[in-house]
Amino acid sequence: MPLSPSQFPVLVVGAGIMGTGIAQVAAQAGHPVRLFDMREGAASEARVRLAATLEGLAARGKMTPEAAEATMERIRPIGSLAEAADARLVVEAIVERIDAKRELFRQIEDIVAADAVLASNTSSISITAMANGLKRPGRLVGMHFFNPVPLMRLVEVVSGLATDAAVAEAVFRLSQAWGKVPVHARSTPGFIVNRIARPYYAETLALLQERAAEPHVLDACLRGAGFRMGPCELMDLIGHDTNFAVTASVYEANFQDKRYVPSLVQREMVDGGLLGRKSGRGFYTYPAGPPALPALPAERPLTARRVVVHGLGGVADMLEQALRPALASLGLAPLRQRDSGWTGLEIDGGRLMLTEGAAAYEIAAATGVADLAVFDRPPLPPAADGRALAYAVHSGAGSAWREQAPEWLRRLGFLPLPVADTPGLVVARTLAMLINEAADAVLQGVCTPDAADAAMKLGVNYPAGPFEWLRGWSVVGVAAVIDALDAAYRGERYRLSPWLRRGGDGPTL
Ligand code: NAD
Known about the structure:
By secondary structure, this protein is of the alpha/beta class. The protein has helices at about 15-30, 40-60, 65-75, 100-110, 125-130, 165-175, 195, 200-210, 215-225, 230-240, 240-255, 265-270, 315-330, 360-365, 400-410, 425-445, 450-460, 465-470, 475-490, 500, and strands at about 10-15, 35, 75, 90, 115-120, 140-145, 155-160, 180-185, 305-310, 335, 345, 350-355, 370-375, 385-395, 415-420. It is built from 20 helices and 15 strands. It has three domains: about 10-185, NAD(P)-binding Rossmann-like Domain (Rossmann fold); about 195-280, N-(1-d-carboxylethyl)-l-norvaline Dehydrogenase, domain 2, CATH 1.10.1040.50; about 305-420, Transcription Regulator spoIIAA. The mean pLDDT is about 95. The radius of gyration is 26 Å and the shape is elongated. The longest helix is centred in the first third of the chain and has 18 residues, at about 40-60. Bound molecules: nicotinamide-adenine-dinucleotide. Nicotinamide-adenine-dinucleotide (NAD) binds near residues 19, 38, 42 and 145.
């Protein structure tokens, strides 16, 4: 019979940001909690802070005063680990150093019962390595919470080589009982979230390095795709020192795989002390924050005699639908050609094309069409509400086309933002690389596609999971963008995952 929470004491070691949050969540779920910190007084101070937090929650009606009081009664700061000999679960949230964590678990092993579970909240240290040297390495598991612990629902349950499946499963179920959404992960650098998220920053940093657009423009494009925060404002919030350290640790842990090379742009900001919000300046200056987007030129009349919507699929359907009012004003109806091999609009011979990876200059060279512009991957389902959308006009286009191309995008319901003529523009390249990283994680048995989707939505608030994006796009489409990036930049970063190369998981996608 499973033990009730009141019979299942939890020891939390480390009364910092994470430990305090974990203690709160465990106590709210009904467990007696012992809280230990090596700094004298730290556990008691954390308990006082927590009491104030819970009082605040009760005052705002988020929990009853009785529940707040009962939660606090369950949390007991302790002055020595020996006072927690009855703990059934130990969650460690101390300093991020393997020697300190190993030493702590070695001590705890001799204090708690042989079948108590040992969990680490590490964000970057190998669970396999941490377990090495323990008497019972099978009972050590990662229990990776996200900050702030009471609000973030994701828990990565991380198994090292020695972790018993039953231990991982027990922590998975316990996390569910605590109101969390756990996902299983294998102990590999960055686990799920910190690994798959790397390209969200890396692609924007690469675009910044070649000065393809300014930070606030790139942020607007990714917000237009549904992300809550653009990469630049997010890095400013996280702190460039922290973000750079995570990138560097994933890079080093992968034997300097070029796919994860940190960015010189970010390195320079760290070196210069431009750490983001906390230092008053990062990509933006605070408290002012991002500057306003460039004003659009005044609306211009559309000129067209013949407009054809090319392509199959959701984006072409959306274009056809969104185009009708603009065409009606010209006394036209959209024609449709589904078998042309590209998606977009043909306007009197000019082409406004959805990016498939190639830059406008490459397509112009291959087709001989000079009046050509490429636009970014719009959000699907369509959101005709003036969302930012990156585009680039071919440098050899005529002056009339330079004005008409963004005007058509505006009439389709977007806020067109010009960026340099780079492969895969902004959103398509970022999504393709996020999908690619997730595909490699699945290939390597780090997690399932469903776990990757849940982890990215709950751990970093992505609007959709990588495999959900893939379902709304196609393996061939993602591969085309990555191959185009690879052809343009060479090197190892744009290396298509073999999982995608072979077509994904077939029918499950
Ligand atoms: P923190 O600095 O706020 O707290 C760490 C606490 O541990 C401090 O109070 C310190 O006195 C105590 N401590 C250090 N060494 C100890 C030891 N040997 N024994 C007992 N207590 C010790 O740190 P944090 O942000 O809460 O992070 C803790 C752990 O959680 C780290 O492993 C970190 O990587 C991980 N983590 C952090 C976040 C985050 O966003 N902060 C997110 C997920 C995971």
